[in-house]
What does this fold into?
Amino acid sequence: MSTSELAPALAREEAADPFGIAGETFTSRLLLGTGGVPSLETLEAAVRASGTQLVTVALRRVEASSSASMLEVLDRCGVRLLPNTAGCRTAREAVLTARLAREAFGTPWVKLEVIGDEHTLLPDAVELLDAAEQLVADGFTVLAYTTDDPILGRRLADAGCAAVMPLGSPIGSGLGIRNPHNIALLREGVDVPVVLDAGIGTASDAALAMELGCDAVLLASAVTRARDPERMALAMRQAVEGGRLAKLAGRIPRRWHAEASTSFEGLPEL
Amino acid sequence: MQITVNGEDTELAEDATVADLVATRRGGHDRVAVALNGDVVPRSSWPATRLSPGDTLEVLAPTAGG
It folds into this structure.
C-alpha cells in the first residue's frame, strides 16, 4: 500500500475508533469546559475549532449566571451539555446540585466535583465517593472528577461511575500531568473510560494524557484563558488525536544508550 | 410574607407560588432550577407549590463552568 493510500485508511480507522460513555458514542475525544471564556464569540470559535461534542456548564444563582445566550451558542454548535457540581464541598451539596442540574438541563449526566478547599480545589475523596454512590443509586450517569489515586479511581468505578476523571494537577494550574505513573496505573485498574481532567496547560500535556492510555481529555482554562483560544482549541484537538494515534501505534521502549537506526553492516573502512 | 430568595430577604404576596416567584426572577433563562428549603422543586410542581413565611429558595440558572 502506498503512503497516499495509507493515510485515508488510517483516517477511516480513526473514525471507527469511537469513544463511548454510558452507551453514548463520541467521535471527539476532547471535552471542553466553558469556565473562563472571555466572550460568547470566543466560546463559539473555540468550541467549533476543538471539534468537541461534550461541553461542561454550571449552575449559579440566576443573578450571577451567564446570559441565556450562552446556551443558544452551545445549542447552535450541536454539543451535548454536561452539568457540573463545581464549588460543592460536601456530598449533600453535590447531590442536591446534581438534582437541580438534572431539572434545569433535562439530563441525568453529571460531572461530579466535590472539592476539599478553595486553595487547591482538590477533590475530597470521602465526600466524593459518598456522593457518587448516592447519585448512581438515584439513576445518574456520573463522571467523577477525582485525584490521580488509582485505588480511589477503582472505588469510583466499582460504585458505578460511568467515567473516572483524574486530575493531572490542580484545576487551572496549567502544571500538566504531575504523576504520569499514577494516571497509567489508574487507567489499567478500571474498565470504564478514563478522562484526564484538570491541569492541562498546553498541547503536549493533552497528547501525554492520551499516550498514557486515557480515553479522552477534559480541559477549560488551557483554551479559554489562552492568548488565542480558538487556535489553542485546534492545537488541543490535534494533540488529542496525535496522542491517541501514538498510543495505538505503540511507542518504542526507552533505552539508556543509543540504538543505531542505520546499520553498521557494510560500513566502509575509510 | 417574607421569604429568602438567593440569600436576600424578599416580600411576597400571601398566596404566592414558586411559579409566581420564578416568573419575576428568571432573567430571561429557560433552563431554571429551584430548591425550596434544601429540596428540588420539579418544574411541573411550580404552579401548585405555595410559599410559606420563612421559606428559603434558591433560583438557579446555567452559567459557564469547567
